[in-house]
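Title: Request for sanity check on Laccase prediction

Description:
We are preparing a figure and want to confirm that the structure record we downloaded matches what your pipeline produces today. Could someone re-run it with the sequence below and paste the raw C-alpha cells into this thread? We only need the C-alpha cell string, no images.
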Amino acid sequence: MRNTSRLCSAKPIVTVNGRFPGPTLYAREDDTVLVKVVNHVKYNVSIHWHGIRQLRTGWADGPAYITQCPIQPGQNFIYNFTITGQRGTLLWHAHILWLRATVHGGIVILPKLGVPYPFPKPDNEVVVILGEWWKSDTEAVINEALKSGLAPNVSDAHTINGHPGPLSNCASQAEKTYMLRIINAALNEELFFKIAGHKLTVVEVDATYVKPFKIDTIVIAPGQTTNVLVTANQGSGKYMVAASPFMDVPIAVDNITATATLHYSGTLANSPTTFTSTPPQNATSIANNFIDSLRSLNSKKYPAKVPQSVDHSLFFTVGLGINPCPTCKAGNGSRAVAAINNVTFVMPTTAMLQAHFFKIKGVFTTDFPGNPPFTFNYTGTPPASLQTTNGTKAYRLSYNTTVQLVLQDTGIITPENHPVHLHGFNFFAIGKGLGNYNPKKDPKKFNLVDPVERNTIGVPAGGWVAIRFRADNPGVWFMHCHLEVHTTWGLKMAFLVDNGKGPNESLFCHLLKTFQNVSSGAK
Ligand code: C2O
C-alpha cells in the first residue's frame, strides 16, 4: 500500500513495486517470462496478462477462481509463460475485486531480435496508460454499490500515466516520429484519445498489426491497446494531449477530460499550449470512424488466419437485468445484475481450471447455453421479466474446433457498449451491425479476408458483433465485459477447451509442473 495524492487529496492504494501505474514489462516475442508476485497487502491478489495467449499455460493466466486460487496475504506465486507468436503492446492488471484500478501496467513485446516493424521505425517509443481515479477507496465504491443494488459512482477523474492534469509531459523533438503505445487501463470507461495539431497513424491494436491509417481521434475500451505513430511536424510549441469518455448512450454524464502536454524541446516554459476540444461523450460516429477503419495487416509475413469454416455457431446476448434483493434498500428491494444468455455468472470458490484438471465435482457445470433461452426484440421492447438466472457455467469446446460467436447487445435496461474480452485467444471481428442480428442476411457481409484481430471488442449499443476464433488452446478461459462494474454484476462466462494434441506437447504436463509450483508455495 502506498499513500498517493491526486486531486488534492491522498489515499492509500495498492501498488506494484511502489508505483502507480505499475512497471512496464518488457519482453521479446518467444521469450519465456517469469514474474514472482509477493503479496504484501491485506487483500487477496492475482495478476492477469491481458492479451497474452498463454498457449498451453492456462495456469499462468491469472483470473482469480477461474485459473488459480488468489494469492493470499503473505503468500507468493510465480507466473511462468512463453510469449508465442505475439509482439506489440498489451497490459497486465490485477484480476480480483476492483484492484486493477491501481494495480496495472504496460506489457511491451518487441519483435524477435533483428525482425523489423512492418512500418517505418519510430525514433522513440512512449507508453501511454489511460486510467481512472476515485478520491475514495475503490473497494469501498463497489462494496457500497453492491449493498445498495445501484450503479457505483463514476470516477472523479480520468488519468494519463497516472495523472489527471497536465503533469505528464511528453517531450518530443521536431521532425522525429514517436510510437505511442496507448493502453486503456480504466475500470469502467471507454476513452477517446487525441493530440492537438497532430494526426495519429494507427499501426497496431491489441498486439496485432493493422493496415496503417491516419486519423485525428482514436477510441479505446478498457483492456484494449493501440499503437500510433506521431510525427512531431509542427515546428515547435506545446500541444494538448487529451483523453475523454465515450459512451454511445450516456447513462452517467461524465465529461472529465484527462490532459497531458506534448511539448517540443526548446519551447519556452511559459509559451501557451495549443488546445484541442474533445468529442462529445456520445460521439458514436467518431468512434465508428476509427473502429470501421481497422483491418488486419494481412501481409505475407503476418497473414490473417481467419477460420473459413465454423464448427460451433454461438449466439450470446449481453446486457443488464434486475434481480430481487430484499436487503437492497436504495434499490427498492432489487439489484442491478448483468448476464450473458440470461445467465448471471456466480464466481466459484475453487478455481475452475483446478476443478477441471483434478476432476473436482460441483464447482461448475458445462451447460452454458449456446443460444439465449428465449428470443425477443433485443434492441426494442424488453421482455416481460428482467430477471436472470444464476449459474457457474462453462461452454465446452473440443480442441482445435472453430467458433463463430455473435454477441448481441440487449436494451433490457438500456443499450450499452460492452467491451467483451476473451482470455487465451485472439479473435477476428468479422462483422458488426445495428439492431437485431439477422442470421440469414448478415453473414453475407462478413469480412473473412482481413478483419481486425483483437482480444477485446466493443459490442455496439443496440447492435451486435460477430467474431471467429480457433479453440487451439486447452484450458478454462474467461470471457467477460471489461467494464469492471459489469463483470462484478455477472457479465461473464468461461469456455472450457478440452485437451488435444497440439504442436508442442501435452498441456497437462506443463500444468502439473506449474501446479506443483503453486501448491509448494512457489519459493
Ligand atoms: Cu483484462 Cu479478464 O481481463
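Thanks, this matches our download. The two ends are 23 Å apart (CA to CA).
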